[in-house]
Write a structure and sequence with these properties.
Layout (H helix, E strand, L loop, with lengths): L2 E17 L2 E15 L2 E7 L9 H10 L1 H5 L4 H7 L4 H18 L3 H4 L8 E2 L2 E3 L4 H10 L5 E5 L5 H11 L4 E5 L6 H13 L2 E5 L18 E4 L18 E4 L1 H4 L2 H13 L3 E4 L6 H11 L4 E2 L16 E3 L2 E3 L4
Parallel strand pairs: 5-6, 6-7, 7-8, 8-9, 9-10, 10-11, 11-12
Antiparallel strand pairs: 1-2, 2-3, 4-14, 13-14
């Protein structure tokens, strides 16, 4: 019979990480380990309060399927037992890792996807006042792709300051649902002037109809407005890009389904992450191979990563051998 363990772990952030919903100084993750006949698979998730999750609720969900996992439940059974979200992500990725190790192969080969290649990831700039963000942008100006956290009113000054600080970097922005109908046009115009390529979730999910009919050369990307492959059918028509995160889809199994379906629909794909360690990023690197924008910089924002971390050379994420 398998052994299953679930652990809460904390990793300090380098400085602090600020978005429109608040600031953090540490990443709190839930790690699942499934051991079978001496071989162990691991998965990590980040519970997200925005989706009604807490560390305690996620641990309880994992423990709730512990007996089934110990009895040999596989990924497809877990899809039925757990809803899309962080708990299922940690379990699903642990099962992928276990299966690959048992078969003496890699997860990417087990999934039947193309060999992994190095990719350029975003580097995130926290929300702050314009001068603070200009200084942060200047320090990161050597990076080719920056993701800028915005916060609503005052964003035209913020994005202009970032562009001044990093004149050559490509820019994408994430408003984390902080914009409203009254500042949508001005904020989009400021982003256009700054050469922003993509705006992630500008308005609150479910209250974003102000985007209907908006004409913009910037890709409008759904994050909170889409979670798993089943929710793609309900994606509002004003989004032409989606952000796939393993903690939303509930693991790599459903994320691959969502990726393939989005490509069929002609949507741009961003592969994102919560603020976690290299363990959480590894399965997402498989999705990144087919993404238009990659945001897997979680480990770069930590003061300390796990042992055996992913390799980053600046913003170039170099995958493990496949």
């Amino acid at each position: 019979m398998r052994e299953v363990s679930v652990e809460i772990e904390r990793f300090p952030i380098a400085g602090s990480f600020t978005i429109s919903r608040g600031s953090r100084t540490e990443a709190v993750v839930v790690t699942v380990r499934i051991r079978d006949d001496g071989i162990e698979g691991q998965g990590e998730c980040v519970p997200y309060a925005r989706y009604g999750e807490s560390v305690e609720s996620v641990v309880a969900q994992v423990e709730g399927v512990g007996a089934r996992l110990r009895a040999g439940a596989g990924r497809e059974e877990i899809l039925a037992l757990l809803p899309a979200g962080a708990a299922r992500n940690a379990v699903d990725c642990a099962l992928w890792d276990l299966e690959a190790r048992q078969a003496g192969t890699s997860v990417v080969k087990l999934a039947g996807r193309a060999p992994l290649k190095p990719v350029i990831t975003c580097y995130t700039l926290s929300l702050g006042n314009p001068e603070t963000m200009r200084e942060a942008a200047a320090k990161a100006a050597h990076r080719p792709l920056l993701k800028v956290k915005l916060g609503g009113d005052g964003d035209p000054e913020r994005i202009a300051a970032v562009r001044e600080g990093a004149p050559a970097s490509r820019l994408v922005v994430d408003a984390n649902e902080a914009w409203r109908a009254h500042n949508l046009a001005a904020n989009l115009a400021a982003c256009t002037s700054a050469g922003v390529e993509l705006v992630e979730q500008p308005l609150p999910a479910g209250d974003d109809s102000a985007l209907d009919g908006v004409r913009s050369e910037i890709a409008i990307c759904a994050d909170e407005s889409i979670h798993d492959s089943a929710s793609l059918a309900h994606l509002p028509r004003w989004y032409n890009a989606i952000n796939i995160k393993l903690d939303k889809t509930g693991g790599l199994t459903d994320a691959l389904k969502l990726l393939d379906a989005a490509k069929v629909r002609g949507l741009k794909v961003m592969v994102g992450c919560m603020l976690g360690t290299s363990l959480a990023m590894r399965p997402a690197v498989i999705l990144a191979q087919e993404a238009d924008v990659i945001d897997l910089d979680g480990p770069l924002l930590l003061a300390k990563d796990r042992e055996n971390p992913l390799r980053y050379e600046g913003s170039l994420l170099i995958p493990d051998g496949d």
